[in-house]
């Protein structure tokens, strides 16, 4: 890339009068410069356009269809709008109004499977708002590898006590409901109880379904990430939990009305339905599946995630980097930087004014483009029975974060351009710092460890702001960049990009103050 290809905006006359200028005047002058150069305006308009168009092409090209129009392709949606897994075997009866359910778990073992259970296989008690997949719930349970836990509404998990259950070391569990508040307890002897947690389930109906459940997620095999390839996932499992001392207290409860039901639909090719047997006061419940967030695969709209609709961000990012770099290097190349600095004795203030104007106009262009790309992507996949399985707040964060990502990248390019005074070098360096690490990390080119460090330490961490699904402690999965997961939370990754930009701006201020124009 040569300077002749990137330093070609239309010429302009400086709007700054020689002499002292306050920061407000500097802002106005920089805005006048920007809007009067057609190349810069066209560059941002093109960045916004390709962000939308490439997202549309990607969504349309891979758009799947539902085999069964009566079943939602995205699976269950939780109370917050997120994709969830809600498949387990449930032995239940209605509980009207306030009340409680108590049970002792004496065993949790694999059902006819070789080897052990996955660590998050579970058996316990649950209060559930209804039979609809994705409905609100609270549960306290014994797990195969994480002790007693209390979980609610799929995404929330609280630790109780460590250890596994057995005849010699059973776990007593209890859930009590008071209005919309559900409190979970555990005990080792049924006499002394310890609270695990208390949660509020807004709008919890009366009655709820209360009972025993068993679930076992797929066992994940060890995955080795090699150069250019990924390992494989595991196989289905079933867990059997044994309960006794089952007591349901409250209006509408009765010992003779227990009903066994497979939640989440009939068996498919991946897992089989559960069962239960009752012998006197002992219940043996077998089930597969999970009650948890869905973190990948067909649950995420058959691969149709919100990030896919923003695939055009990469091309748009290149264009805003070019605009950002030339916003300062064009002045150096044409000698107009002297006029700007003569009008502003505080050179750092002049550079900050450029940064504010550039960041603001880039954000203003990127925000409607990101929103349009997401809305258009939803419109394209919805006829096939798909939706982006995210909540409203997540969707807003992704859209606003994408615009902020573009804006900060433009300012970073401007800062690097100030230091180098060459647009080709600035564009190349910023592109290599942001886009190249992202490609190396997410395209299975590097092993998982180095990929995660790239997305922690380089400006490419800023792409985390587009991630729609976090890592969940209660779900074992391939949380690697190749599967779309960032090692930093969305705003944490964005903060890394901002940190690099702040350092570059600091260097630019130093250079513009101590170096001749």
Low-confidence stretches: 1-20, 63-73, 222-232, 297-303
List how many beta strands DSSP finds: 15
The assigned structural class equals alpha+beta
What is the CA-atom radius of gyration, in angstroms?
29 Å
What is the structure about, briefly put?
This protein has 517 residues and is an alpha+beta fold. The chain is built from ten helices and 15 strands. Helix 6 packs antiparallel against helix 7, helix 6 (347-381) runs antiparallel to helix 10 (490-514) and helix 7 packs antiparallel against helix 8 (423-442).
Provide an overview of this structure.
This protein is α+β, with helices and mostly antiparallel strands. It folds into 2 domains: 20-63 and 302-469 and 479-514, no CATH class; 76-293, Jelly Rolls, CATH 2.60.120. 37% of the residues lie in helices and 22% in strands. It has 10 helices and 15 strands. It has a 15-stranded antiparallel beta sheet that branches. β7 (171-178) and β8 (181-187) form a beta hairpin. α8 (423-442) packs antiparallel against α9 (448-457). The chain is elongated. The model is unreliable at 1-20, 63-73, 222-232 and 297-303 (pLDDT under 50).
């Amino acid at each position: 890339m040569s300077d002749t290809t990137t330093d070609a905006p239309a010429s302009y006359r400086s709007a700054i009068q020689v002499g002292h200028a306050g920061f407000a005047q500097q802002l106005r002058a920089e805005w006048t410069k920007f809007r009067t150069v057609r190349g810069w305006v066209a560059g941002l308009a093109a960045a916004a356009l390709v962000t939308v168009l490439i997202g549309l092409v990607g969504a349309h090209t891979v758009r799947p269809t539902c085999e069964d129009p009566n079943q939602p392709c995205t699976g269950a949606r939780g109370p917050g709008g997120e994709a969830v897994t809600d498949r387990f075997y449930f032995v239940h009866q209605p509980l009207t109004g306030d009340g409680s359910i108590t049970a002792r778990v004496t065993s949790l073992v694999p059902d006819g499977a070789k080897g052990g259970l996955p660590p998050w296989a579970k058996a316990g008690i649950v209060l559930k708002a209804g039979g609809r997949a994705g409905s609100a719930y609270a549960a306290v349970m014994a797990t195969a590898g994480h002790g007693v836990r209390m979980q609610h509404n799929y995404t929330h998990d609280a630790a109780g006590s460590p250890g596994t259950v057995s005849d010699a070391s059973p776990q007593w569990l209890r859930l009590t409901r008071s209005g919309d508040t559900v409190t979970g307890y555990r005990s080792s002897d049924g006499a002394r109880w310890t609270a695990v947690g208390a949660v509020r389930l807004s709008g919890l109906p009366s009655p709820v379904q209360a009972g025993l459940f068993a679930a076992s997620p797929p066992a994940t095999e060890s995955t080795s990430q090699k150069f250019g390839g990924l390992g494989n996932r595991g196989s289905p499992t079933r867990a059997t939990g044994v309960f006794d001392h089952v007591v349901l207290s409250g209006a509408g409860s009765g010992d003779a009305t227990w009903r066994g039901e497979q939640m989440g639909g009939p068996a498919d090719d991946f897992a089989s339905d559960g069962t239960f047997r009752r012998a006197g006061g002992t219940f043996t419940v077998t089930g597969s599946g999970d009650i948890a967030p869905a973190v990948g695969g067909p649950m995420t709209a058959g691969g149709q995630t919100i990030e896919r609709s923003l695939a055009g961000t990469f091309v748009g990012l290149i264009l805003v980097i070019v605009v950002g770099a030339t916003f300062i290097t064009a002045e150096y190349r044409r000698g107009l930087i002297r006029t700007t600095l003569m009008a502003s004795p505080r050179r750092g203030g002049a550079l900050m004014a450029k940064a504010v104007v550039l960041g603001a106009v880039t954000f203003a262009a990127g925000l409607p483009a990101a929103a349009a790309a997401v809305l258009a992507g939803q419109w394209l996949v919805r006829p096939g029975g798909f939706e982006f399985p995210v909540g409203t707040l997540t969707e807003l964060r992704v859209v606003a974060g994408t615009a902020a990502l573009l804006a900060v990248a433009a300012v970073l390019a401007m800062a690097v351009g100030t230091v180098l005074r060459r647009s080709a070098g600035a564009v190349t360096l910023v592109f290599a710092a942001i886009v190249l690490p992202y490609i190396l990390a997410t395209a299975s080119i590097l092993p998982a460890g180095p990929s995660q460090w790239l997305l922690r330490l380089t400006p490419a961490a800023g792409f985390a702001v587009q991630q729609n699904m976090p890592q969940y402690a209660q779900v074992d999965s391939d949380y690697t960049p190749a599967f779309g997961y960032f090692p930093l939370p969305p705003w944490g990754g964005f903060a890394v990009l901002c940190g690099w930009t702040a350092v570059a701006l600091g260097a630019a201020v130093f250079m513009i103050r101590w170096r001749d124009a």
